[in-house]
């Protein structure tokens, strides 16, 4: 069995999360909006308790948590949902970065086709966005700034706190894609000034198909989001459709476990990262990212003469790794993130992204492969 080293793409479901979901499926089969009987009331209680737990972790009001199908839907709702307001107010300018997740970039490009103007900020060669490069683009007709907290390809932590502080006094909406940071950088998220925040269940050992969009209130008003779907009044009118109670329960359980257990794992994860770097540096490894501002369990690197696609084919029975975003892994297009960082084609073709948890990692086969090829 191959060692799973693609946790940025998706994480295995924690057995305790699975048990929480099974309990709902087996014992609480009701629709959370069926108020006339005990099964619906039980389901509603699960949703309310789950919403409350996530809000406690982020230190926000429970009514600010809008459950969605995942971070992609949350990103699209945050960006495209502001379109009508932007048109009516004359604020049709958006600032984002060139290294955002495809969910943000494609939503921005959709608005571009609708007449909005989008500015894309490039990172430095270590993959970090400089806050001043974002803020200097903000102008009178800027509707939205959208910057991810942690990049999904490099693991680099972006200066969203600095950007949020600068924007908080104005009228520009600030959206943060926190799919990769929720559960890991919760202290920063609790103190972060934002209007909208996207989070996901399957990045924190929860189920796939569930996430949330946090819509913070300012002076009792939420961001003027229009829902993408039309139907019932679920999720305060922002997200119609029957609430997937078991997924919500699993999401909340995963968030709770990460909040309680992740801090104790940081040292182990960083040690594994340091050992991996030490083992590969003698072979010319170049880190694609910023070691001083990155998650401890993500490493994107290139090794001279080690083609990533060839490695995947040769070592598929030993390692489950990727060369970037899972949203792009079905194609052989070069990483747009590494391109934005200014890397040449050769370095990008050699790039591997490794992301793990606290399981043992045997790197000897990787080292042998590098020795044989070089």
Automatic annotation (TrEMBL):
Catalytic activity, EC: 2.8.1.7
Cofactor entry: pyridoxal 5'-phosphate
UniProt entry keywords in alphabetical sequence: Aminotransferase, Iron, Iron-sulfur, Metal-binding, Pyridoxal phosphate, Transferase
UniProt-recorded Gene Ontology molecular function terms: cysteine desulfurase activity; iron-sulfur cluster binding; metal ion binding; transaminase activity
Domain of life: Bacteria
Matches recorded under SUPFAM superfamilies: PLP-dependent transferases (SSF53383)
Keyword Metal-binding: yes
Domain (Aminotransferase class V) ranges: 3-342
Signal peptide positions on this chain: none
Catalytic reaction annotation: (sulfur carrier)-H + L-cysteine = (sulfur carrier)-SH + L-alanine
Family membership noted in the UniProt record: Belongs to the class-V pyridoxal-phosphate-dependent aminotransferase family. NifS/IscS subfamily.
Protein name: cysteine desulfurase
Source species of the chain: Candidatus Pullichristensenella stercorigallinarum
